[in-house]
Amino acid sequence: MPSSLTSNSAASAPILEVRDLSLTFKANVHRHWTWRDWFVGMTGKRSLTSLQAGDPLKVLKSVSFSVNPGERVGILGVNGTGKTSLCRCIAGVYRPSSGQIRLQGQVRAIFDTSIGIYPELTGRENARLLAKFMYPGMNKEHEEMVREALEFSGLGEFIDVPYRLYSNGMQARLCLSMISCRPGNLLILDEVFDGADLFFREKISGRIHSLIEKSTAALFVSHSPDQIKRVCSRVLILHQGRVAHDGDVADGLTTYRELNRHKP
Amino acid sequence: MAVLIDQVWAMTLANLKSRYRNTASGFLWVILNPLILYGVQSYIFRTVLNIRIQDYSLFLLSGLLPWIFINQSLEMSASILVNSGKLLKSYPINPIVCLLAQIIDNTINFLAGFLLIFAFTILFAPVPIGRLAILPVPVLLLFVSIFSLSWLLATVQVFFRDTRFLLTFVLNISFFLTPIFYPPELIPAEHRWLLALNPFNHIIAPFRAVVHPASEIPLLPSLVASATLAFGLFLVASYFWRKTRNAVFFNL
Distances from the Cα of B177 to the Cαs of A136, B182, B186, in angstroms? Predict the structure, then answer.
């Protein structure tokens, strides 16, 4: 196994330790192929071996950092620097090509708030399903969580309306209320505030701050330096798949601007 | 494992709820398709084309209903990873949960349609009770085979986006190449090797062996062939998934 996920209950140890993490996608995976293309290639001059052509796509290169309890770590970087891929590795969606991820307890991650599991079902029914996936093994608490999250979301009578009729902001309210209804060991929020309106953003920020205080850590991915400054106690700047800065937020934002000064 | 089962069950119930819209008529609507297809084909082949097979109703039931399940499940599952791409990348949902929920949902519809027609047909063409006790085995083998094939196809669909269209074409051909509405004996002896290569034939044969004794299909060999196929497909699908997991998520 190239990576390992371990668990123990030591409270003083980092919640997350990432060591020499690399993620590479094989050559042909970033191409869009159809059987028709393949057939035309086979019957034309291109051979089947052309499927293996191309360079490996190195998304993350030897990334190392750790997160301690109570920390709010911002992850900043321009598009394509591997922010979301890093979070997906930590959340267990991607398997790293090499390196280690040591995690104490459970990670709770959300990468998009504009999608329901079943758009035809109501907000309440979707919230119940989300509880199953976000809080596995806590069945006895699910009803209470859903009730509390729906109340916090302020969706009122829209709770029993099909999810597909929700606006982006309403969907964000439901998802963010669900993800923040119980403290987890590590919370990953990947550009999720973007869909919510200003007032709910303020409301949810308060709730997430309170979650972090309950010995939880969080990783925030954002394109907004202002948001990082407001929410985070530390920042990680990713540049071309590597960590370019890990530490103070103000210094990190300076590094971020320096690195991308010449970009259009 | 308990968590996975809990999630699969929750998603299956949500699937059923969204399909049936919480009504009995919703459920009836879903099983109307196999019922009508069975009724029309039974009339055409027995009355119009005059196919002479003892207990033709049972014969057709044992081939057509599993075929409808195979067809619907593969068609619906082939695009499941692509269609759920945003969902799978947004929430910590195991893609296998989505796939299993879809196949279980279809299995429930299949069993409802199958048992409904079977209960009616058996009044006119009795089947030995001892054989019926074995029926869950072909159902289980059908489930495993189609789940594995769906898993494989859904994974391939991520890389080759026209797999679903190719599948429809293959299924249309397979309907005629598989002894569903005609007995295998009608195939000329020199072409019967095709049956050995046809996976759908191996999946359907145990049903026929159990439900239509007049076919005289040997039960044990048909079960062994079907189980080997189911196990083999599962191994191939899980190996392919392990090899391509990251690439699948990357391409969603």
Answer: 45, 10, 12
